[in-house]
Amino acid sequence: MLSRQFVRENPETVRDAIEAKGVTGVDLDGILEIDEEWRELKAEGDDLRHQRNEVSSQIGEYKREGEEEKAQEAIERSQELKEELQRVEDRADELEAELEERLLEIPNVPHESVPYGEGEADNVERYREGFDDLRVDPDDVIPHYDLGEELDVLDFERGAKVTGGGFQFVKGEGARLEHALIQFMLDVHREQDYVDVFPPIPVNSESMRGTGQLPKFAEDAYRVGDRQEDDYDDDDLWLLPTAEVPVTNMYRDEILLDDDLPIKHQAFSPNFRREAGEHGTETRGYVRVHQFNKVELVNFVRPEESYDRLEGLLDEATEVLDRLELPYRVLDMCTGDMGFTQAKKYDVEVWAPADDMEDGPDVGGRWLEVSSVSNFEDFQARRAGIHYRPEQHESAEYLHTLNGSGLAVPRVLVAIMEYYQNDDGTITVPEALRPYMGGQEIIEGHEPVGESALGEGDSE
Questions:
Q1: Domain 4-103 in CATH 1.10.1740.10
Q2: CA angle 310, 315, 316 (to 5 degrees)
Q3: Buried-exposed string 95-124: b where 16+ CB fall within 10 A, e elsewhere
Q4: Three-state secondary structure call for residue 230
Q5: Which among 217, 261, 263 is positioned nearest to 240, based on CA atoms?
Q6: What is the per-residue pLDDT for 228?
Q7: What are the domain boundaries of the chain?
Q8: Pairing between strand 291-301 and 263-272?
Q9: What's the rounded Cα separation, in Å, for the pair 30 and 27?
Q10: Which residues contact 253 (CB under 8 A, 6 or more apart)?
Q11: 459: exposed, middle or buried (Cβ count in 10 Å: 0-12, 13-18, 19+)
């Protein structure tokens, strides 16, 4: 969140940020009015407190001088001031609670380097990698959802039967490939000095608020239990939408030391989101699903180092694709497409050659986002109360948080299935993954099981 002082002193900057990010429903003028009334009440409370102190001192003087009538009048006046002060403080507390809640509605202010734009068409491509010598022709590529069923490594029908649409089974060599990807990613990031964290899967509402998922994105999250729609208490639990939530909140309401920084954590977790995606190929296959695996990278840094760290984090995330030799691109996200909490964000999109989309790359196929690499500055730290102390004798300050996927596993698996597929319908295992698959070089698939797998004329 933004500090109330920043909002108070920079209303036009905040108004511009709300407009640039396309956030609706924020009554900034109302927030400023609440803040003004709160400050007036605080001043009034200070004045009443001062008056009461003066009256209290007079009571003693009157009693020492034997002026009981004046002492009684002073006692009565002190009681009146006490009651008035209590009324003012109660109202100030109500306004402060409302102000804190309303400040959560305000998005982060984009960094000055962020390109202005209304949507994804205004994002700026920063660079591409891996397109000099492509190993496949998109016209000849079988989409992963068809190939996955032919090889019996992806089973969407049984996933929907067991749980519902947007859930799936990854089977046999497909499951082995996904496990290999996860372990490979973790090993790459350990080389980059990341410390592993295996976080809790349910997170409470305070944690969701700390990273900005609440209140804005409540509808996209899976809630545990039966609660009232807008009643998010500390006992309320959610299935984590990203490991960013528990890992960032590890240090909630703590003061870290300067020597602790930077802190770099990586966390593998399953993730759960209700978002259904767009119509067409986005809802087919393993691209946009309700449960997916991901390795998340979370950084805690000194404020003056956060933008250098953002560039380093981008390099750390893309190294996975470089080693897998998968073509990809990096986008500098515009104001209207960068998200509520970020000050600056890069998207990393891997190339999937099947499904030639209208807004896809000029080489055919489509882009699949596998990481959003973001600098939140002190936006999350302020919400979660994460401080650091630059020197032992200095006041604690808010640090900066950053994160990025390292990477989203299903979409990388999709890219491998499409980019590394062969003319005979098999899939070549990328060289970097072979040590994690016992040296296996080719995925040939499995014979399906059950009567439903029998062709016409095969049943008895």
A1: no
A2: 95
A3: bbeebeebbebbbbbbbeebbebeeeeebe
A4: coil
A5: 217
A6: 58
A7: 4-103, 120-443
A8: antiparallel
A9: 5
A10: 384, 385, 386
A11: exposed
Amino acid of residue 435: P
Sort strands 154-155 and 344-352 into parallel, antiparallel or unpaired. Answer: unpaired
Give the fold, CATH level 3, of 120-443.
BirA Bifunctional Protein; domain 2 (3.30.930)
Q: What is the DSSP string of 127-149?
A: EEES-SS-SS-GGGPPPHHHHHH
CA distance 71 to 92: 31
Mean pLDDT of 154-181: 96
Q: Element (H or E) spanning 372, and its range?
A: strand 366-375
What is the residue-wise DSSP string for 308-357?
A: HHHHHHHHHHHHHHHHHT--EEEEE--GGGS-SS-SEEEEEEEEE-SS--
- 108 to each of 135, 201, 246, how far by Cα in Å? 42, 27, 21
- pLDDT of amino acid 455: 63
The whole-angstrom distance between residue 379's C-alpha and the CA centroid of its chain comes to 12
pLDDT digits (tens, 9 = 90+) for 253-262: 999 999 999 9
**260-285 residue pLDDT tens:** 999 999 999 999 999 744 444 456 79
Angle at Cα 203 formed by Cα 197 and Cα 207, nearest 5°?
Answer: 90
Burial (CB count within 10 angstroms: exposed 0-12, middle 13-18, buried 19+), residue 74: buried
The three-state secondary structure class of 244 is helix
Token couple for 419: 């980019």
Contact 271, 240 (CB under 8 A): yes
pTM metric for this prediction:
0.91
Average pLDDT over residues 139-149: 96
Per-residue pLDDT tens over the stretch 192-226: 999 999 999 999 999 999 999 998 888 899 999 76
In one letter, which amino acid is 27?
A: D
Closest CA to 419 of 28, 65, 143: 143
Strands 344-352 and 328-332: antiparallel
Between vectors from CA 323 to CA 320 and to CA 325, what angle results, nearest 5°?
A: 105
pLDDT score at 281: 46
User: What residue type is assigned to position 451 of the chain?
Assistant: E
Mean per-residue pLDDT, 2-30: 97
